[in-house]
């Protein structure tokens, strides 16, 4: 049994949808994913949509969750300070953001047959920019994409986006599709 999810076995599905907060997913209706696999999202996603698991690797966001009495299941790193009754604390080594941390957890613990990734853009733009706990920070294209690539392991990943910025070539476990193609296949 996979220890971090021993009380939540229903979340160990073959298909995972991992949702970041990049601008590419702005017009995609996340409710289309319900019932088709486990939905895991990052940080402020909870403001608009409640995923099956919310990844929170930031103590300020953790405080926001606590202040707003977030009642969903939270995945957080050890020592992050998320105070939620339903928190899985997991040590993932050198993962610097919620996207990398979540992908590492999915590939190491959940081991789905396919992980669809939406909104982990690898280029500037965040849906929650200039809101509580989010600032506009200049980022270079591919800043996070390189980190994402390093935690995928042998997991099959389908990057759903408006353009492919991860730069993964010659990898049978990685593919890219547009939101239009993704929606048509749901």
Structure in words:
- The chain is of the alpha/beta class and 186 residues long.
- It has a single domain, classed as 3-Layer(aba) Sandwich (Rossmann fold).
- Helices cover 19% and strands 19% of the residues.
- The chain has four helices and eight strands.
- The protein has helices at 59-67, 98-110, 145-150, 179-185; strands spanning 15-19, 38-42, 53-55, 73-77, 87-90, 114-118, 157-160, 174-177.
- An eight-stranded parallel sheet has the order 5-4-3-2-1-6-7-8.
- It is globular.
- The model has no long low-confidence stretch (mean pLDDT 88).
First and last CA, distance:
29 Å
Shape: globular
Assigned CATH architecture: 3-Layer(aba) Sandwich
Order of helices and strands: EEEHEEHEHEEH
Which CATH top level class fits? Alpha Beta
Which oligomeric state applies?
A: single chain
* SS content category: alpha/beta
Mean pLDDT equals 88
Q: What share of the residues does DSSP label as strand, in percent?
A: 15-25%
Q: Helical segment tally?
A: 4
Given as residue ranges, the uncertain stretches (5+ residues, pLDDT < 50) are none
Radius of gyration: 15 Å
Domain count: 1
Write the layout of secondary structure elements.
Blueprint: E1 15-19, E2 38-42, E3 53-55, H1 59-67, E4 73-77, E5 87-90, H2 98-110, E6 114-118, H3 145-150, E7 157-160, E8 174-177, H4 179-185
Parallel strand pairs: 1-2, 1-6, 2-3, 3-4, 4-5, 6-7, 7-8
Descriptors:
single chain, 186 residues, Rossmann fold, eight-stranded parallel β-sheet, 19% helix
């Amino acid at each position: 049994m996979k220890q971090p999810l021993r009380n939540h076995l229903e979340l160990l599905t073959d298909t995972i949808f991992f949702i970041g907060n990049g601008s590419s997913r702005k017009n995609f209706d996340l409710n289309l994913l319900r019932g088709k696999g486990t939905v895991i999202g990052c940080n402020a996603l909870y403001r608009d949509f409640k995923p099956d698991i919310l990844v929170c690797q930031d103590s300020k966001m953790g405080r926001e969750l606590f202040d707003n009495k977030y009642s969903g299941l939270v995945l957080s790193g050890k020592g992050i300070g998320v105070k939620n009754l339903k928190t899985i604390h997991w040590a993932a080594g050198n993962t610097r953001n919620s996207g990398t941390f979540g992908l590492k957890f999915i590939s190491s613990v959940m081991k789905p047959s396919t992980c669809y990734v939406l909104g982990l853009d690898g280029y500037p733009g965040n849906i929650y920019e200039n809101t509580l706990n989010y600032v506009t920070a200049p980022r270079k294209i591919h800043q996070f994409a390189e980190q994402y690539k390093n935690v995928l392991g042998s997991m099959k990943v389908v990057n759903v986006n408006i353009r492919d910025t991860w730069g993964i070539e010659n990898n049978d476990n990685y593919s890219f599709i547009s939101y239009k193609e993704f929606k048509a296949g749901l």
